[in-house]
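Quick illustration for those who missed Monday's session on complexes.
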Amino acid sequence: MPVVQPTESDRQFYRENGYFILRQIIPANLLRDLRREAAKAYDIALRISGPQAQRLAPLKDHAGELELQPFHEFDRIEGLNDAIKALLSDEHELKPTEEATILFGPRERPWSTEWHRDWRDHVLEAEFQAEIGDARWQEIAMDFRLWNQVNCPLYEDSSTWYVPGSFKRVHNTAAELRVYASSTQQELWDEDKRRTDEELELFCLRYCQAMPGAVQLVLNPGDFCIYRNVGWHLGNYVPYRQRMTLHTHCHTPAYAKFSADHAHMQKALAAGIDRHARLAAAGY
Ligand SMILES: O=C(O)CCC(=O)C(=O)O
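Prediction with 2-oxoglutaric acid bound:
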C-alpha cells in the first residue's frame, strides 16, 4: 500500500508542533529484510562501541558486512518522497538511507541522553554569540528547509521524547532550564553504578517526565516520525526493549549548505558541551 499522503491540517500540525508521524510506511517483506540487516549492524556496533552501543553510522561504511539493497529499497518506498514533499516542500527529499544511522537500545543498563536541542547545544556559547547571535538563530531555527530529522523504527520504539513547539523559541523557559540543570549526562549514564538498574531506570524516566509539555513518541514498526531536531528532545533507553530504529533526515540543498558553512562550529557531539556557559548566558 502506498504511503498515506499528509493533508493541509497535517502540514499545519507540523509547523506548529514540530513533529509528525507518517504511519506504517514499510511493506512487510522490506521490514523483514531491514530487520535482518539491522541485526548485523547491531553486532558491528557492539564490536565497536561495547554493550551500551547506541548507534552505527553511516551504514554504507559497513557495506562489506551489510547488504545495502534493503536500504536502497527504503529510499524508493512508493509515495514516501511525495509524502515528504507534501508535508514539507518540493525541495525536500529523503537522505539516501545508506548514509543514515541505526539507533539501538543498550544491552546492559538503562540510560538517557540529556534533554538537548541539536546544533544550538553542540556549539560553544561564545562562538555562537560572535558568529550567529539570537536574532539570526530565530530565523535559522524557523527555517523549514533545515532540521527535519527522522526516526523510523523496525521494532516498536518509545525511547524518544519531544517538546512540541519548543523549536520556535530562541530562549528556553525557566521551567525547561530547571529540568535541564537538574541532572547531567554523567548522572544519566551512571557509569560508577551509584544506582541499581531499577533506580536508574526510574531516575531517567522522572527526568523525561519532568520536562513541561514533553510527549513520549510512541512509534510502531514502520512509523516514520519527522521532527524538528532544534526543539527539545532526548532518547531514554532500557535493555528490555529491542530497539533498531532508522535515524535519518529529510534533506534540502539549503541544509547541505548550512551544514558545510558552519561545520567548523560543531564540536564533537559531546554531551553537555559548554553547559555552564549556556546556563550562565540564560541567567541561570
Ligand atoms: O534516541 C533518540 O531517539 C534521540 C537521539 C538524539 O537525541 C539525537 O540523535 O540527537
